[in-house]
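Q: Give me the 3D complex with iron/sulfur cluster.
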Amino acid sequence: MPGKKIVFFFPAFSSQEATAPLGILAVSTPLLRAGYEVRILDSTITPNFKRRVLEELEDALCLAVSLVTGPMIRETVKIAKAAKALYPSKPVILGGWHPSLLPGQTLVAEYVDVVVKGQGEDALLEIVEHIAAGESMKGIAGVGYKEDGRLVFNPPRELKPVSELPPKAYHLADFDAYQRVCGRRWAMYTSSLACPFNCAYCTNEGVYGRKWNALDPGQVVEETTDLVTRYGLSLLWIVDDNFLVDRERPVAIAEGLVRSGVKFEWSIQASTNLVERLTVEELKLLRRAGLTQVSQGADSGSPKVLHLMNKDFQKVETIYEAARKLSQAGIRPSFNMIFGFPGESDAERRESIRLIMDICRRYPGAEFWTNIFTPYPGSPVMERAFELGIHVPDSLEGWVDFFPRYTTLPWLNGSKHKRVQTMRDYLRVAFNRIPIGKRQVHPLNRAIHELISIPARWRLDHDLYGLPVELWLKNAANRWFPPVKSKVDAHKLQAEAVTC
Ligand code: B12
Ligand code: SF4
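A: Here is the predicted complex, encoded as structure tokens.
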């Protein structure tokens, strides 16, 4: 007879930026408060995770998985299939970005029983209570389920503002294990929801709408200082879509953090136009409060492509201004770029490369992370991408390889695609970038990277990528001096007390 236990599975996301899955910590709190036990198995820190999930499921009510589109689906499918094979009557519930954006296609999979669209705090508690009472999912807002072999979708659930959401159950996280994988002890934190803009490639509107809402500065200061002190963290990544929407709030947060005397690094995501709105003095205050990096979607160096991306709020000069002001304040400007957006030709791509080269030279320390355009369902550009011949998978499993790293587009395939990938490889070595994860790099490996950065810059300046000997050398160096990987095993799981 199953007790009051819920098993969560968090599949690996092909990145070394390991830390506790915030979505699962968010939906756990209402369950704990209602007296349920929670087990979280994150495959990144759990050896033999399949066996461990199945063992834990034996006396549990259900299995719940959190996933985004892409490689996380591989382990989701593996675990869900194994769970259904062993315990056919225990529901498998999927939540997070992928099920939220493609609920129908996700629910069709035979090993999925329930999907949750959007915020999961209230929805999951209601689902679990219905399961415990042996009732159907009828009437639970934001939920899709199966009944007599049919797919049923209840009406959507209204979004709750962040100020009405319960605190995340950080105490469930095994920060020791994450630190061993990542090399850094850090966590994610949310201080606001949604973004007022609507960039053509972005899926945010489909899940969080555009009504930006935020916690007040006092609460942010209290929660963040408590979090870092309690768990000994050195870094918080504030994962808000656009931290700087309210001009006064970040300044008040910074003042509060400085007053608190608690020292830690933090980083934010924000659009360049809102960074530019702040003065260098205000940014210096944020730096004193611990802000070390601002991650921004620069996306293109071409005004034409920026317009196609629905980013008229950002001019190319805005990107320069954001880089200048942040650099003067001692904060690392970090930019994302997208290559291959519909409408981008070689000429516009060159504008992007020139922008990257120019900013990195003028503002040493600035960094660029590049992607090949990946059209996510639910983003405004999707219709246009379909017209241009994009094919998207027609089953949950088909999305496993849908990932920027592998993307080829009908208008950017074959040798064109190869060229852009080589160019991206040269960009990776041309200038330094600082990931969250801190792996020990062998000094000789580092020296080789330094050496090849010089010809890499020359190649990027001259748009010449044939016979990429430097990249062969780089790959050989990575093979000769690989980074040391630590062996990790999550804490032995225990029943969780109600503490939040
Ligand atoms: C942190 C983050 C990452 C981190 C993850 C670190 C970690 N340890 O988890 C890293 C850096 C690895 C990452 C990588 C990528 N990411 Co990311 N990431 C985010 C970010 C900024 C925050 C996610 C988060 O934790 N939010 C806070 C929690 C509380 O909110 P939430 O996840 O929405 O959870 C709520 C609901 O979704 C739901 N829910 C979530 N899980 C579950 C589970 C159950 C059972 C239920 C019922 C409900 C539920 O309830 C929660 C509470 O309301 C989001 C953007 C955003 N603002 O959310 C992008 C985002 C999720 N990422 C995205 C993308 C595209 C990527 C990358 C492809 C980027 C890239 N170019 O490589 C990779 C893919 C990773 C992979 N290999 O699969 C997209 C996802 C689009 C999609 N269709 O899935 C987002 C939405 C950004 C965007 N706007 O485009 N990412
Ligand atoms: S500014 Fe960022 S979060 Fe806002 S719509 Fe554009 S990409 Fe999405």
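A quick observation: The mean pLDDT is 94.
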